[in-house]
């Protein structure tokens, strides 16, 4: 077998060779890649994450039962039920996703995705969507149980169809960013648990009983706006303009957090 320099090859043969090399690795489009990553993550995490979903649901229900002895009703009961429901989303989308990406980075799993023609956004969005999907049944069960426990109406529970994906996107993006930016998986786990604890303390407890400084910190938490949007629907005449405003803020934060997570993925993948 002889090696022929490229300079002596005819232009047509060189062009044909370049076309053949270009056809070997076409870049995948975002949407098909996202769907493929979502399905793979959903099937992989189904067995391992379902027990943790039960833990998240029972944790939120237990918190509501404890708060039942302190809160009688009114706006405080609405805040407790809404915060407990969104806490299920925070446990899975923030805490578990931070641990997952932290372990993926430490074990070299990012190298596997880096060798595939998959856009970084598809990896982040697919994993975030898969983890957020596990929160749907637990969030609905928690909300229904809380409404029955505190005597709140079930009329507008359909708003969870908007609260879950928007709050899930915001928290999943934050969790993915924490896991990808943490230098060690132990630190990623710690940051995820701290974020979930913040969602617990700042989201479940009524805002009226918090100091002013804590209220300011509460406004910086992405899940707060999902909690507020859900809690407003328990009134006799919900102010839908405020509900839509809270959901819009949650959606904007979700886009920003997922963009930061995509940047963090690119940064971690090239190291």
Task: Explain the overall architecture.
The protein has helices at 11-22, 30-68, 74-106, 109-114, 120-133, 135-150, 160-181, 185-204, 212-220, 223-232, 240-269. With 271 residues, it is mainly alpha-helical. The longest helix is centred in the first third of the chain and has 39 residues, at 30-68. Residues 1-25 have low confidence and may be disordered.
Summarize, please.
By secondary structure, the chain is mostly helical. It has helices at 11-22, 30-68, 74-106, 109-114, 120-133, 135-150, 160-181, 185-204, 212-220, 223-232, 240-269. The chain is elongated, with a radius of gyration of 23 Å.
Features:
elongated; disordered N terminus; mainly alpha; 271 residues
Describe the sheet with the most strands: none
What string, H for helix and E for strand, traces the elements in order?
A: HHHHHHHHHHH
- Radius of gyration, whole Å: 23 Å
Number of helices: 11
Helix content: over 70%
Number of strands: 0
Name the average pLDDT.
83
Distance between the termini: 38 Å
Based on secondary structure, the structural category is mainly alpha
Task: Give the overall shape.
Answer: elongated
List the uncertain runs: 1-25
How much of the sequence is in beta strands?
Answer: under 5%
